[in-house]
Design goal:
ATP hydrolysis activity; six-stranded mixed sheet; single chain; EC 3.6.3.-; Rossmann fold; binds adenosine-5'-triphosphate
Length: about 210
């Protein structure tokens, strides 16, 4: 297992958002966390990705407890990648400059390969407001991949895309997972079941 979580419980002040959740992901697995609004998907994803500390529970990355990871900043920069509903690209920079900003290793050949893989090589010198929403989200995927993470976490990555663009993103996730990157996404979109290896449904803070 690349990621294991046990007994994850989370409270926001006194409100229970997650109740004793267990979760595991294998290398190269594409897992979708689905559920109604407010069910706890984002909270679970934030905890799994180390952005939020749970009130209770244990997390392990490649068998090592998160609490024992000495350099959590390096972990977030190198081992995992993040994609959000809003791409957070910087409007003053071209797509390529946005990617290079995030890249530890600025090797252009590797970055070009990612652009090709995500089908957006033609727009790399454009600015975010000159391209479509689907292209912006694919640029955010290139950025998430640039430091060769082992796991990609995506929170509502297709939340502002139409169904055609959503399918392109899911297909890309599927291809990435087949080449060994673990993909964990939170989404309302049940069409993801056509692509994901595993669907986890969250309801009222519990996995059902
Ligand atoms: N920062 C916060 N402070 C207080 N309560 C919160 C906070 N974030 C989430 N909650 C509450 O925790 C519960 C789970 O929220 P969460 O955002 O994880 O659900 P979700 O399934 O991702 O919802 P959505 O699909 O609408 O994003 C909800 O009851 C929500 O109101």
């Amino acid at each position: 297992m690349i990621l294991q979580a046990g007994g994850i419980t989370h409270y926001y002040k006194n409100d229970l958002a997650l109740d004793n959740v267990n979760f595991e992901a294998k290398k190269g697995e594409f897992i979708a966390i689905v559920g109604e609004s407010g069910s706890g998907k984002s909270t679970l994803l934030s905890i799994l990705s180390s952005l939020l500390l749970p009130s209770k529970g244990e997390l392990f990355f490649e068998g090592k407890a998160y609490t024992l990871i000495k350099d959590i900043d390096a972990f977030r920069q190198k081992e995992v990648g993040f994609i959000f509903q809003f791409h957070y690209l910087i409007g003053y920079l071209t797509i390529l400059e946005n990617i290079k900003l995030a890249a530890i290793n600025k090797n252009s050949t590797y970055i070009d390969t990612l652009f090709e893989q995500c089908g957006i090589e033609a727009i790399k010198h454009k600015y975010p407001d000159e391209i479509s929403g689907g292209q912006r989200q694919r640029a955010a995927i290139v950025r998430a991949l640039v430091n060769t993470p082992k796991i990609i976490f995506a929170d509502e990555p297709t939340g502002n895309l139409d169904s055609r663009n959503s399918q392109t993103i899911y297909k890309l996730f599927k291809t990435l997972s087949k080449s060994g990157t673990t993909i964990i996404i939170a989404t309302h979109d049940r069409h993801v079941s056509d692509y994901a290896d595993k669907i986890i449904e969250v309801k009222d803070g519990k996995i059902i």
